[in-house]
Amino acid sequence: MQRISEEYEGLSKQLKVIAKYIEEHRPTLVLERITDIAQACEVQPSAIVRFAQRFGFSGFSDMQALFRDSFAPAQGNVNNYQKRIRTVIASQDTPLSNTELTQSFLSACQQGLEELSQSLDPAAIDAAVELLYKAENIYVVGVRRMFPIASYVCYALQHTQKRVHLISGLGGMYHDQVRSIRENDLMIAISFQPYGRETRYCARVASQNKAKLLVISDSKMSPLARNASTVLTVKEGTAFAFRSMSSTISLCQALFIALSYRLELVIEETQDAGAYDD
């Protein structure tokens, strides 16, 4: 998956579609037939074979075997749940009650959190906390649906000694708010498909100014991931065509707690060392 992410931009249009499908379905890829994947991607089975060979495998079965260890039957319930919700909507003779709608949406949130818990990448989490810890200034950007989460991240980080800047774009001032980012700074870019134009612009500026970039997104193949120092991926639960934000906000809260824990440990170690010297 790391190689696919690194080489994604150089793939043909067909192979990009296949790459995205594999990333989204890797927990259950070992169960799927090549014809099923081809149909879902609207390509010929031979394109799946070409994709596998592009990354050094003899064919589809050889590549499929690589995902056997990551097979997780429980994660397949996320997609099944979504299908059940759609089926319920289509099959209801009478409208659902407010309580039933609420329970269904909360269940989708729970499914998203469960998937996030099972798919966490420890190395990526450690790298993200390291970026936060070392940054002189932290810039945070998220637009439209992700703006409330970006605002929360700023609110939380302002409880540390870090200098934190929310790129709000108020008055159309995205360009002005991001232009001061520098080499020892960090930008946190939060964006999901279709990936906000403003967020992509800010990420480009951060890269051009040699700042570090922490991306929170739904795919390691998103345009934001291209120049990222670290990417944290989140697959939100969905119900009634609405995507939850519970997994993303939970991940951001966890990052803040991890950073605070590390900063507090450093303070304690410094104090202990000083006491020992005295």
UniProtKB/TrEMBL annotation:
Residues 1-74 form the HTH rpiR-type domain. Residues 128-270 form the SIS domain. Pfam families: HTH_6, SIS. The keyword Cytoplasm does not apply. Keywords: DNA-binding, Glycolysis, Transcription, Transcription regulation. The keyword Transmembrane does not apply. InterPro entries: Homeodomain-like_sf, HTH_RpiR, RpiR-like, RpiR-like_SIS, SIS_dom, SIS_dom_sf, WH-like_DNA-bd_sf. This is MurR/RpiR family transcriptional regulator. The lineage of its organism: Bacteria, Pseudomonadati, Pseudomonadota, Betaproteobacteria, Neisseriales.
